[in-house]
Amino acid sequence: MIPLPSLPEAHALVARSDLPIPAWLFAWAASGALIVSFFALALAWRRPRLEDEHWRAIPWRVARAAVSLPVQALCGAVGVGLLAVAVYAGLRGTDAPERNLALTFFFVTVWLGFPALSVVCGDIFRPFNPWRAVGRAAGACAVELSGWAPRHLRYPERLGRWPAAVGLVAFVWLEVVYGVGGVTGAGLSPHTVAVAALVYSGYTLGMMALFGTEVWCARGEVFSVYFGMFSQLGVLEAREGTLGVRRPAAAAAHWATLPGSLAVVVASIGTTSFDGAQEGAFKGGIEALDESLLDAGLGAVAALRLTDTIFLALTLAGIAGVYLIGVWGMRSIGGGRSFAALRSGFAHTLIPIAFAYLLAHYFSLFFFQEQAQFTYLLSDPLGTGTTDLFGTAGGGIDYAALSARTIWYVQVAALIVGHVLGLTLAHDRALVYWRDYRDASRSQYWMLAVMVALTCFGLYLLSVSNA
Amino acid sequence: MMIPLAHLGHWSWVFYVIPVVIVVGGIVRSTLEERRRKRGGARKNAKATRRGGR
With 80 as the cut, is the pLDDT of residue A185 above it? Predict the structure, then answer.
């Protein structure tokens, strides 16, 4: 009898050992769920339902109060205050990233918390946006003092959301590529993060002065565009001076009309994928290229950063390529729509997938790291061990609060639900583009392939990085 | 004798590609069938037109 080594012990690359079935079987099951959803949509969903948001105001006084000027001013002040505290902690606090508020605040609480909050509560970052608050206050002061409203430059419409897409990649590059040269676990020092936040604040306020606060927030301000994208999936929206409800995910249908919108959503999926694959699926490739660059004479840090940058670019290109193949396939059905029209017309279908990837990849990190955020980091933001503002400085992270199996099931559920929602949005849009529901369904074979590919890719990344 | 399976984990991605291959294969097959049917229909129409002309 031949002794077979247990695979997880041999290389720890197959799947979590505590799962009842191999991880890849989840990918097969998820693909099955997508195929069943596809045929269910083809049979039962024969007219577009998500083109109209059906927004209606909530008839309670609190809905109007929630978006009133004093509340907005208060939220803006809270946003500015939190940014100031985080920057101060980064500049003056300890260099140990796990003890300093700055890193967890920027990269976990804000970066991962606001997408989830935006889906649930609508565009909640908008009132808390510190740069928008400063920009609006400065504009109001200028009007008050000079008696005339400042004139802004006309924003080049061709640029659309491209500045936000580039900024999004730059932000993640700072975290997962630039940071790898550091000696700490997080890779980035709190001081670097604080300086980056100050540079970004200067850049953002400058752009707001040039093009106007609201115009820049809608197109170029990375965080407004990024969190605003996820808010399109939710049911709450402030409009006409009050809070209202709309059909879930219906707002997404008209989000991708600006140029660069596809780039934003692809950047979101691509950067999350790269972050998940860096220490898992891409590890071997990254090490091989890194060695080649070292042999070519590059320094250790430069070689690693260049390698990671190349892999990040390849991941972005890969995600964009899969989507564009789907669009190319759709075009073969006919209907007279150009490739460019289909490309932007279906870009919004990737928003739930971007959220699913985010949730699946960072759910456990967020869950554990927020325990640190709301205990010792909040009481001792500088991490010097000398302050205990709220009496929680002695707190810690309870890693037993969430089992590995629970994390895996949340990840799988997030990916399946996200892709089914993406498929639904795509089907609904196809019913608008191809009047005959049979043609619309046939066009969506290709989007089904895109969704199955992205689901399997996401589960593969998770299975490898979890192992 | 030991089977060198230590690196088998590197090939786990194959299991994740299989569903994608099945779906893409199904789409390509149905697209080709559709084209063939359309071409066949066009040929029949052309024949009918020629007969009608005679």
Answer: no
